[in-house]
Design goal:
Chain A is of the alpha+beta class. Chain A has 5 helices and 5 strands, in the order ββαβββαααα. A 5-stranded antiparallel β-sheet of chain B has the order 4-5-10-6-7. The chains are: A alpha+beta (158), B alpha+beta (288).
Chain lengths: 158, 288
């Protein structure tokens, strides 16, 4: 069976890879490209641990074939920080203890950043509903929501 | 498994028609990929339709809209025109899954997956939506109501695919609404749902109504007795009671882990009643 050659952009870098037709984008990111920040929590699109952006849209990378990434702009958790400089969301998550085991955190950060990129002043309800596709087994969500709300407030005031 | 990404409808039809094995259309992939991974379906060919320009656009047509088969829910939800004309269809589509799922899931895919509990289908049927189909023998347009055959089965022939969903033009003082019951707040499959579309006269009399119920039968039910209960009335309590009774009478649900027959039967009437009230408010211009 022949592999598919894919040309894409990941976190603003041009990337090329070969993949099997049934490989998901998550498989490719983790196993081909070494971008292991995105996690596999369910492989059914329910938990959001694999969240990435495609063309600026928040999606589950477990619900995309690697082949579908051709010509697309992909954003992963690895692209959220600016080199060594953490994104305000990441800093706030640390300062506000908005993570415990951390397995949901990459997906939550990608999702939260996607929210603030399009809606810099969300209400708590909007944050909770936006993040409904990101499950956390550790924190009970409260500190996560607070961290997102407070980051939004900080970024607005900045 | 082979993967193809044609750039025209004709190419897609050609590939599908020539395929002797099992094929699957890949639009948003939010159902197909799950089925692939769990081994529920083992297609020989997956045809990605997202490179076909006309499948990825929403166009105005004859006072209504043509929504390309590959347009994701997130894009539909941002389209002011579609939301204004068919808020019930948009809210139904918008209920599917999470923000991530919305970034990919499509109306056509939701329809073609053939789940009895598909959220957008009752709303599309209430709206009298049609599916534009392309195939080896040309194109045809079919009522969305005629697409689902049984759970997981749809009325498309070999080589055919849906290219767009048409939402028709709307009369004045018309609107629609969709409600579903799920045990959680989000991310669940409908236990029972109701899509209602109606038209009111200048004095508030209902002149047309379509009431569709989801997740209470192998395919979505378009309940004629429920329409009859509303048409000619001013949506007073007696009419709404009759509507709810007609819905409950029409239900043929199953008992499963999500809900009992009794629960679904009763709640179908409750949701139909509420959706009717919302649609009526919207029809009179109240968009709150």
């Amino acid at each position: 069976m022949s592999q598919i050659h894919v040309s894409t952009t990941i976190n603003d870098d041009a990337v090329e890879f070969l993949c099997d037709p049934e490989d998901t984008l998550l498989d490719v990111l983790r196993d081909e490209l070494g971008l292991t920040g995105s996690k596999e929590g369910c492989s059914t699109g329910d938990c959001g641990a694999c969240s990435v952006t495609v063309g600026g849209r928040l999606v589950c990378s477990c619900l995309m074939l690697g082949a579908e990434a051709d010509g697309q702009e992909i954003g992963t958790i690895e692209g959220v920080a600016n080199g060594e400089g953490l994104h305000p969301l990441q800093q706030r998550f640390i300062d506000g203890a908005a993570l415990q085991c951390g397995i949901c955190t990459p997906g939550i950060l990608v999702a939260a950043k996607a929210l603030l990129d399009r809606n810099p002043d969300p209400t708590e309800t909007e944050v909770r509903y936006w993040l409904a596709g990101n499950l956390c087994r550790c924190t009970g969500y409260d500190k996560i929501i607070r961290a997102v709300m407070e980051t939004a407030r900080d970024m607005k005031e900045a | 498994m082979r993967y193809a990404a044609p750039s025209t409808v004709n190419d897609a039809v050609g590939i599908l028609a020539a395929e002797e094995g099992l094929s699957r259309i890949l639009a948003g992939g939010t159902d197909v990929l799950v089925q692939l991974r769990t081994g529920l379906v083992e297609p020989d060919l997956v045809v990605d339709i997202k490179r076909i320009a006309e499948m990825t656009t929403i166009t105005e047509a004859d006072g209504g809209y043509l929504i390309g088969a590959a347009v994701p829910g997130a894009v539909v939800n941002e389209h002011a025109g579609v939301k204004a004309k068919w808020p019930g269809v948009v809210e139904a589509l918008d209920l599917i899954g999470s923000t991530q799922v919305q970034g990919r899931a499509t109306l056509a895919g939701n329809l073609c997956n053939g789940s009895p509990a598909a959220d957008s289908v009752p709303a599309m049927i209430a709206a009298n939506a049609t599916a534009l189909i392309a195939g080896p023998h040309g194109t045809r347009e079919v009522a969305v109501a005629d697409i689902p055959v049984s759970p997981g089965k749809i009325a498309l022939k070999h080589g055919e695919l849906i290219t767009a969903i048409r939402l028709p033009a709307k009369a004045e003082r018309s609107s629609d609404a969709y409600l579903r019951f799920i045990p959680r707040t989000e991310m669940d499959i409908a236990v029972v749902s109701a899509g209602v579309s109606l038209t009111l006269d200048t004095d508030g009399t209902c002149t047309e109504a379509r009431v569709a119920l989801g997740a209470v039968a192998p395919t979505v039910l378009l309940v004629a007795d429920a329409s009859a209960a509303l048409v000619g009335s001013k949506l007073d309590d007696a009419a709404l009671d009759a509507l709810a009774a007609a819905c409950s009478a029409a239900c043929k649900p199953i008992d499963d882990k999500r809900g009992t027959i009794e629960f679904r039967t009763r709640v179908s009437g409750v949701l139909a009643r509420r959706a009717t009230k919302i649609a009526a408010k919207r029809a009179l211009g109240d968009v709150s």
